[in-house]
Amino acid sequence: xxxxxxxxxxxxxxxxxxxxxxxxxxxxxxxxxxxxxxxxxxxxxxxxxxxxxxxxxxxxxxxxxxxxxxxxxxxxxxxxxxxxxxxxxxxxxxxxxxxxxxxxxxxxxxxxxxxxxxxxxxxxxxxxxxxxxxxxxxxxxxxxxxxxxxxxxxxxxxxxxxxxxxxxxxxxxxxxxxxxxxxxxxxxxxxxxxxxxxxxxxxxxxxxxxxxxxxxxxxxxxxxxxxxxxxxxxxxxxxxxxxxxxxxxxxxxxxxxxxxxxxxxxxxxxxxxxxxxxxxxxxxxxxxxxxxxxxxxxxxxxxxxxxxxxxxxxxxxxxxxxxx
Length: 324
Prior knowledge:
CATH superfamily: Single-stranded right-handed beta-helix, Pectin lyase-like
Strand content: over 45%
Radius of gyration: 19 Å
Largest sheet: 20 strands, mixed
Structural class: mainly beta
Number of helices: 1
Helix content: under 10%
Number of strands: 30
Number of domains: 1
CATH topology: Pectate Lyase C-like
C-alpha cells in the first residue's frame, strides 16, 4: 500500500488565517458547578424494556437542573440495557418528528460504561429515528454530556433507513460527547446539530469509537466553536467525519466556524474528513486509511469555505485530497 504524508501547510481560499477557538482540548464545557450524581437502576436483562425508567430519571434530573442551575449526573452502570422506540413529539408544535427511544434534556450528564441497545423491529424502512434525541428550537440542549456510554443500533434486526441514527442531538451550547462507542447504526453514529440562524456553541467530541454505520460516522452542523479529536471511526458507508455550515443561497458566510479536527483515525469510509461550507478552522494530525473517495474533501454548496488550514495529515490507500 502506497503511503503519502500531507505535511506541507495548505492554506485554502485565503491569504491569511485566523481562528478563534477558545476550547482547551475539551476539558471545560460549562462554568456551572456540578450538582448531584445518581445511579440509575435499569435492568440489564434481555427482553426487558428500559425506556420508561431511563426517560423518567432524565426528566427528573433536568427539572433539578432548572431549579438549581447545577449539572446533574446519571450513571449508567455496566450492562446491556434494551430500549424500545416511541413517536418523538415536538415540545412546542406538538408535531411528530419520527421516532426515538430517549429524549435527552439540558443539564443532564449521562456517564458510566453501560450499553444502550435498540430492541428489534422498532422502526420502518426509511423512517427518521434516533436512539437518543432532543427537542428543537428554544428547547435545544445546553450543559449536556455523554461520557463512556455505548449505543448499539442493532441494524440487522431493524429496517433499512439511513435516517436511523444512534445519537442525534439538537444543541444550543456546551456539549461534550466523550469516550462513547456508537456502532451498528443504519444511519449515523453521532450527529450534533445547531441552527443556521443560531449556531451551536462549544461542542466537543473526543475519544469516541464509531463503527459500522450505513451513513456518516460523526457529523456536526451549524456551529461556532467545535473540537473533534482523538476519535476512531471505521467502516462507515458515507464520510467518517463531516462538518457542515451552509446557510442557503444569498448568505455570504457559512454558519460553521471556529473548528479544530485533529488526532483522529478514520478507516474504510467514503471520505475521511469532509468539511462542507465551513470557515476558520484547522484540520491536522489525522490518520486516514483506505478512503473510497478521498482522504480529505473541502466542499461547498452556497456559501464559500474560508480560512481553512490543513496540514500534517496522513492518508494511505486512497486519493489524498479533493476540493469542490
